[in-house]
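From the shared-data thread, chain only:
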Amino acid sequence: MLSPACAFGADYPTRPIRLIVGFTAGASSDIVARLYAKGAGPIVGQEMLVENKTGAGSSIAAEYVARAAKDGYTLFVPALSTLTYRIVHPEARFDMTKDFAPVALLAVGPLVMVVDPKLGVNNVQEFTALAKSKPGQILFGTVGPGPTLLASCTHSAQASSSYRYPIPAARRSRPT
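Structure, as tokens:
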């Protein structure tokens, strides 16, 4: 990992560094940011503050950081959904490839796909074959528009000539 002190020289940082997170306190990206701040702050010799600017799949936070001064004191901690946000929302007022530069890999995690055992599939290949055999009948749920899983499923659906209708979590009926 490249520390900010190495990237900017001996006089950086001279004031606290703000880590902007697009989700609420306790969300996975928030936890990652807080752990990083706690560990990196003493190394760089400055306090690292985590600020949550929530909403719109973290695009509010992304736009805020994209418009901030390019001085290394306002950093963005994106989630996977932020990286694919522009695919679903081309009108977004930030571009992850033009407005940001990667500095450090803070975390990795798996993407998980689960199905009801009664569906009778045991892997992605079997699921894709089932979806091809039942066009328009396979449904899946996501946490909302923009997540990497949604982009992956949509790409898979297009590649397999089948379509799976995404049902965002907020619209799914909840058991009573």
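The two ends are 48 Å apart (CA to CA).
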